[in-house]
Amino acid sequence: MTVVLCLDLGTTTGWAIHSKQGVITSGTISFKNDRWQGGGMRFLKFNRFLNELNENAGPISMVFFEEVRRHMGVDAAHAYGGFMAHLTAWCEQQNIAYEGVPVGTIKRHATGKGNANKTMMIESAKARGHLPADDNEADALALVYWAIDQRIGEQL
């Protein structure tokens, strides 16, 4: 069985893992810096988070992340780019396959609508038996189901 990690990257990152046993776990984690931390601390925390997931739930075989092409602002775009750079470098170091999946593809798979709103994504996760804390976790859950159906179903 394959261990798959799915991420909705951002200052508040949603994550979902499909374990070797076929169990899906998920959550959110905040990488917001406090006023005493430098800008790079969020990425060091992110790398530590990835290492802990790999150690506790892994070894991770595949990583999928939500590929965002439009951002609400410059700060969000910079943060996303930083998380994506650290994620892809970490995957390369660990020899883990990774793939970005367009937002519309994930939303369409989860709800039937490529422009589904946050509430629709949360409702989709609830319909699958999950209780996401927010839309970030719901997006990561939607992505893990997309990955199962589109990329790893035959390996299960």
TrEMBL record:
An MF annotation (GO) of this entry: nucleic acid binding
SUPFAM superfamilies documented for this protein: Ribonuclease H-like (SSF53098)
Superkingdom classification of source: Bacteria
InterPro entries: RNaseH-like_sf, RNaseH_sf
Protein name as catalogued: Crossover junction endodeoxyribonuclease RuvC
Protein's organism: Aliikangiella marina
